[in-house]
C-alpha cells in the first residue's frame, strides 16, 4: 500500500482488474482499427465518383471540419470516437468518478475515511488524480497503439503524421477531462454511484448522439456546441498533425469548471451514509 | 483545552428537512471519563456522534472535541480521535492487514498498539491475510475496534461497539475500556445495550426522540430510579386490585405480580400492599435496564442536566 497517497492507491487498487482489462481492450481495439485501415488500399479511398459521404458521417470520423471517413485520418479518427472507444472511456471515468465520493457515501465507508485527519480537499484531490491516471492510461494505450500502427504502415504514414497521432491523444485526454469534471461534481453531490455512472453516460453517449443529429439536420445545427464531440475532433488532429487548441481549451475548461463545482459541492455537504 | 471537557455539545441541533435528528442537545464529557450515551434505535445517538466527528454539519448549535471544532479544526483534532461507526463498513477487497494499514496511513500517527490489540482480540496473521469480504460480522467488528484504538487516541468515540462480538471478546473489550479509563483516555460509548453501558461507564446520558432526557452517574441512576417489588399471593385467584399501587403498572403472572416503584414511594407502597393477603414479598434494586425503561415510561424527566 502507498502510505503517501493512500486514497489514490485505494481507488486504483480496488478497480485494478477493470482498468487492466480496459487498457488491454483499448490497445487491441485500436490495433484492429489500424489493421482495418491498412487493409484498404489508397486507390479505394476517395473513390466516391464525385460523391462525398454524408456530412453527418464526420461524427464517425472524429471531425468537425472536412475530414471524411473515407480517408486514413478519418478511418483512424473513427477508431477514436467509435462507440467501443466511448464505452471504455465512460466505463473507466464513470466507475472511478463514482468511487471518488458517492460510492463511499453509499457504502458507508466514508465514515472511516473522513473521521481521520483527511480534508475533503485531499479526498477529492487524490481521487481526481486516480481518475486522471486511469484516463491517461487508456488514452496512452490508444495513442501508442495507433502510433505504432502508423509507423509500421507507409501508406497510412503518408497521410497521417505521427505528430497528428499524439495530438489526437492529447485531445483524447482533454475529452476525458471534460467528462471527469462534471462526473466528479455529480459524485461530490450525490449519494449513489448509479447517479454518477448515469450522468457520465448521459454526457458521453447523449453528447455523441446530439453531435450526429446536429451534423445531419441543419435545424439542429446549433446543438452541436453543447456536445463534447464537437470539440473532441481526433480526425482533424490526425489530418492536421497538431493539437486544435481552441477545441482543447473548451474541453479542458468544461473539465476545470466541473472540478471547481465538485470542490464547492463537497465542502458544503454532509458526508454520512 | 481550557474547559477540562473532552466533548462539549451546546444546544446541538441537526434536522434533515422536516425530520429532527437531534434537538437542542447540551452535554459535556469530562476528560478522562468513560461516558455512556444511551437510547433506543432512532433516538439520535448516531446523528450526535456524526455531528461530533465532523461527518454532519449541525443545523444549529455547536459540537467540540478536545476543545476544537470537528469540521473547522478537523486536521488538528482528528489525529487524537479514534472512532468506531455503528454500522461499520469496510472495503471487502482489502485484507484485514491492508485495511489497518490504509486507516493507519490516513490517521497519520504511528499505530503503536496494533500488534497488542490484534493479539488480544484474536486477529492473528492468518486472519489478517484474508480479505475482509470473507470475515464474519464479529471479525469485522474486531477490525473496527483495532482501527479505532491502534493509534492510542486521547478521545475514543464508539457507536454500538460490542455488536457481533462473542462474550469472550466482549470481556476483552471491557478490559480495554477499563485500561483506557485508567490511562486517562476519554471514551464516549453509544449504545442501546444497557448492561454494556452499566459495566463500562461512570456517567450516562439518555436521549429520546433526539432530545436529552437526563445525565446521571450510573450509580445515581440506579439509586434514584425504581425498586422492583415482587409479591406472591399464593391463593391462585390471579390478578386483583392493588389499591394505590395500581399506579405502578403491575405486571401479573398468575397470582404473582411485579411493580417498579420509585425509591421514595417504596415504604408507602409496601404498607398498602402488605395489608393484602400476601404470601411472599421481595424488594430489590432495579438494574439500569429498569431505570432506563422507567425513564422512557415516565417522560416527565428533565430535558437537560
Automatic annotation (TrEMBL), chain B:
Keyword ATP-binding in annotation: yes
Database matches in CDD domains: ABC_DR_subfamily_A
Pfam families linked: ABC_tran
Listed SUPFAM superfamilies: P-loop containing nucleoside triphosphate hydrolases (SSF52540)
Keyword annotations from UniProtKB, A to Z: ATP-binding, Nucleotide-binding, Transport
UniProt keyword Zinc present: no
Residues in coiled coil: none
GO molecular function: ATP binding
Residue ranges annotated for the ABC transporter domain, each copy included: 7-234
SMART domains: AAA
InterPro entries: AAA+_ATPase, ABC_transporter-like_ATP-bd, P-loop_NTPase
PROSITE patterns: ABC_TRANSPORTER_2
The family this protein is said to belong to: Belongs to the ABC transporter superfamily.
Protein name per UniProt: ABC transporter ATP-binding protein
UniProt organism field: Streptomyces flavotricini
Amino acid at each position: 500500500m502507498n502510505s503517501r497517497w493512500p486514497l489514490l492507491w485505494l481507488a486504483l487498487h480496488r478497480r485494478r482488474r477493470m482498468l487492466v482489462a480496459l487498457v488491454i481492450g483499448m490497445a487491441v481495439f485500436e490495433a484492429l482499427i489500424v489493421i482495418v485501415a491498412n487493409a484498404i488500399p489508397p486507390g479505394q479511398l476517395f473513390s466516391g465518383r464525385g460523391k462525398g459521404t454524408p456530412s453527418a458521417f464526420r461524427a464517425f470520423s472524429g471531425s468537425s471540419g472536412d475530414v471524411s471517413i473515407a480517408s486514413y485520418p478519418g478511418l483512424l479518427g473513427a477508431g477514436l470516437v467509435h462507440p467501443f472507444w466511448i464505452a471504455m472511456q465512460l466505463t473507466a471515468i464513470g466507475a472511478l468518478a463514482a468511487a471518488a465520493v458517492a460510492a463511499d457515501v453509499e457504502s458507508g465507508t466514508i465514515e472511516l475515511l473522513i473521521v481521520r485527519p483527511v480534508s475533503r480537499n485531499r479526498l477529492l484531490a487524490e481521487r481526481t488524480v486516480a481518475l486522471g491516471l486511469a484516463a491517461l492510461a487508456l488514452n496512452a494505450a490508444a495513442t501508442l497503439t495507433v502510433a505504432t500502427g502508423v509507423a509500421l504502415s507507409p501508406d497510412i504514414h503518408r497521410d497521417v503524421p505521427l505528430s497528428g497521432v499524439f495530438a489526437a491523444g492529447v485531445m483524447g485526454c482533454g475529452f476525458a477531462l471534460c467528462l471527469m469534471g462534471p462526473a466528479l461534481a455529480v459524485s461530490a453531490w450525490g449519494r449513489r454511484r448509479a447517479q454518477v455512472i448515469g450522468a457520465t453516460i448521459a454526457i458521453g453517449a447523449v453528447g455523441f448522439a446530439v453531435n450526429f443529429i446536429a451534423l445531419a439536420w441543419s435545424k439542429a445545427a446549433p446543438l452541436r456546441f453543447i456536445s463534447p464531440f464537437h470539440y473532441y475532433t481526433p480526425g482533424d488532429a490526425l489530418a492536421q498533425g497538431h493539437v486544435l487548441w481552441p477545441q482543447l481549451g473548451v474541453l479542458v475548461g468544461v473539465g476545470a469548471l466541473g472540478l471547481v463545482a465538485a470542490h464547492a459541492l463537497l465542502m458544503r455537504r454532509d458526508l454520512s451514509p | 483545552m481550557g474547559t477540562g471537557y473532552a466533548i462539549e455539545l451546546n444546544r446541538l441541533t441537526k434536522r434533515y428537512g422536516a425530520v429532527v435528528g437531534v434537538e437542542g442537545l447540551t452535554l459535556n464529557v469530562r476528560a478522562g471519563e468513560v461516558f455512556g450515551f444511551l437510547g433506543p434505535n432512532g433516538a439520535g445517538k448516531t446523528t450526535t456522534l456524526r455531528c461530533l466527528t465532523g461527518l454532519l454539519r449541525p443545523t444549529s448549535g455547536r459540537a467540540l472535541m478536545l476543545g476544537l471544532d470537528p469540521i473547522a479544526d478537523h486536521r488538528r483534532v482528528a489525529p487524537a480521535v479514534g472512532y468506531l461507526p455503528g454500522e461499520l463498513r469496510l472495503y471487502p477487497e482489502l485484507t484485514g492487514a491492508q485495511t489497518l494499514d490504509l486507516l493507519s496511513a490516513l490517521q497519520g500517527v504511528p499505530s503503536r498498539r496494533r500488534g497488542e490489540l490484534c493479539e488480544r482480540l484474536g486477529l492473528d496473521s492468518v486472519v489478517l491475510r484474508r480479505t475482509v469480504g470473507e470475515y464474519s460480522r464479529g471479525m469485522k467488528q474486531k477490525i473496527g475496534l483495532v482501527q479505532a484504538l491502534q493509534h492510542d487516541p486521547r478521545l475514543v468515540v464508539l457507536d454500538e461497539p460490542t455488536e457481533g462480538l462473542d462474550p469472550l471478546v466482549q470481556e476483552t473489550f471491557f478490559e480495554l475500556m477499563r485500561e483506557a479509563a485508567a490511562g486517562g483516555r476519554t471514551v464516549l460509548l453509544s449504545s442501546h445495550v444497557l448492561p454494556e453501558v452499566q459495566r463500562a461507564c461512570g456517567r450516562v446520558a439518555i436521549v429520546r426522540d433526539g432530545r436529552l432526557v437526563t445525565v446521571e452517574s450510573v450509580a445515581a441512576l440506579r439509586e434514584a430510579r425504581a425498586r422492583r417489588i415482587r409479591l406472591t399471593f399464593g391463593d391462585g385467584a390471579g390478578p386483583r386490585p392493588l389499591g394505590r399501587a395500581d399506579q405502578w403498572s403491575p405486571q401479573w403472572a398468575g397470582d404473582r405480580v411485579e411493580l417498579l416503584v420509585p425509591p421514595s414511594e417504596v415504604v408507602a407502597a409496601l404498607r398498602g400492599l402488605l395489608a393484602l393477603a400476601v404470601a411472599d414479598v421481595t424488594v430489590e434494586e432495579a438494574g439500569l435496564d429498569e431505570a432506563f425503561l422507567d425513564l422512557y415510561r415516565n417522560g416527565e424527566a428533565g430535558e437537560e442536566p
